[in-house]
Amino acid sequence: MSMTILQPKIEIPMDARAIRKCQKYVYSIQRNLDRAVAENDKKKIRWLTYILTKKSKAVKILAIHRVTVENDGKHTAGIDGIKVAEGKSKEVKEYNKNLREWLYKEADIKKKPSAIRRTYIEKSNGKLRPLGIPTILDRVIQDMVRMTIEPITEYHASDNSYGFRPKRNCHDAIEHLYNKLAQRSCPQWIIEGDIKGCFDNIAHDHILDNLEEWNTPEYIRTIIGRMLKARIFEQGTQIDPEKGTPQGGILSPMLANVALTTLDRYCKRYDRRSNPIVRYADDFVIVCKTKDEAEVIKKDINVMLEDKIGLTLSEEKTQITNVHDGFNFLGFNIRKQKEKSPYSKYHKIGKLLMKPQKEKIHAHLRKLKQTLKSNKQAKQESIIRMLNPVLQGWAMYYRFAVSKKIIADVNSELWKKLWRWSKRRHPNKTKRWIVRRYFTAKTGAKWEFRTKDVTLIDTRKIPIVRYVKVRSGVRVYDKDEEAIKYWKKRVYVNALDQIYSNKIEKLFKRQNGKCYYCGQPIEAEQIEKQKIHVHHLNPRSQGGDERLNNLRLFHQQCHTEAHSIMTREQMSYWAKMKGDYARKQKINLFAKAEMKEAKVTISKIEKEVKQRQSYDTMERKRIASAKRASQMVKEGRI
Description:
Layout: H1 16-38, H2 42-55, H3 57-70, H4 90-106, E1 116-122, E2 128-133, H5 136-156, H6 170-181, E3 189-194, H7 198-201, H8 204-213, H9 218-228, E4 232-234, E5 237-239, H10 252-266, E6 277-280, E7 283-288, H11 291-309, E8 319-322, E9 327-329, E10 332-337, H12 346-349, E11 351-356, H13 358-373, H14 380-398, H15 404-425, H16 431-438, E12 439-440, E13 448-449, H17 481-497, H18 502-510, H19 524-528, E14 532-536, E15 551-555, H20 556-565, H21 568-576, H22 584-592, H23 598-635
Parallel strand pairs: 1-4
Antiparallel strand pairs: 1-2, 3-7, 3-8, 4-5, 6-7, 9-10, 10-11, 12-13, 14-15
Helix pairs in contact: 1-2, 1-3, 1-5, 2-3, 3-4, 3-5, 5-10, 8-9, 8-10, 10-11, 13-14, 13-15, 22-23
């Protein structure tokens, strides 16, 4: 194969910029793989998957980073007891560094999977959900396979499927439903579908057959087959699974989607113009014109699922409902409500309203109550820092629905709870004293629960907006320039929509939605999980302030890395001398420079960085011209 791709030269341990380089490299290979799938070029598919699984160091590094840094289950061990250590001491950092180096050496796609540790977690209805926890090494290998086959599965996935897929989320599914049900002539009957024990009962053969149909190389299918057949270790006994993909594995959600793509395609027969199904993982809704049609479709789907995929519908949760009676989906209550006024156009047909589900509201209030109840002696600042992420996350999730009044009611209930919490701490003090101690009034505003440093978020100020659904027919890994521009713009807009603070919003716009340190985009998921930090050029401990000129937005890992390279005293000095040290290509130079002839040093560093950038530009042009020449030779133009 004449096609050659230069890999970034990176060694373990990994820094933030190295991770971004790896992501860029792997993304370029995935785009090439998407094009090969579109052209049905089996030879090129085999070559590119071979590069990703067996040759690429970048894929291995990204998999290790995802499993040991980003994944929430990094502190959970498999049957071997190996996990990422918690803490910030030198011993812990050294252990985690050695663990990553060991994973880098041992991670091999050919390795036989170890047994899976079975554990159980409680569901909201009181039942137990089984989880399968692979070893940390197997998780790294699974993520390598996931990155390899994701362009293939994404190409063949339905536009009506939204769960566990890149750059798609619950709000896309909800908005899709709104478009199907909001208009006057829309169908009025709904099948609320839920598959019973979906992950535990999927037929292995069906997953592998679908992958074979999509031209996935045979050796990858063999590796996935081994993962599916991995033994399950439960209470001293080992079980050989005949079906199912264990929840808890990194690859499991993708394999479930591979199997359920058959369901998406099957539903097309009921409406050729617009597929009536909207699916999020194993929860789905099918729109029907009449109740009789809904009952027929429900029976047909149940038979198809059992015959082809080995699954059955849950009789408890699968219901046929009229849209005027309302139904729940992904935490929202969706219902057409008729207006009382006979002069309204919604008097007969009804207006589709999407509101937060009642059970979710009560669960949220119980969580707030439990937080205050279990922290009766905590400081006010600690309480605010515990409540703010919960309040912001809940309000930001429901701000795309008809939720203004509900958010205000929740805010009112929380205020009452905080008042009782404050009174309990000082039973002998007057109400006026408690107000002065915990609640301060601003001019033109109501009382706020706050300290000098932090303020409790007022969720009523979060604007209610309309969510823009992801465009159908645009693939994530499409190499087309229009698709690339669309996804870049969508990443920027979605991240901007997730920002609550005016200060962070201004910084985000100033930096064009990119991390100031590494130059890579800031994504909505990173903001939602609070993995974006505000860096002070002149640290607060050295007299720095909160003005925008002193602030920069960093990724969490970039921020940690910057502070590990430079001391706060160095940062303060170079910030006062107006040296722009906060970029990755400059920070090492500033950290090593002497703090004497500051102006001369800064000019030298700027000159050196410009020389590096010009050299990098020339190198990129050389590689691009070589690729064009090889393409012309291949096409016979030279």
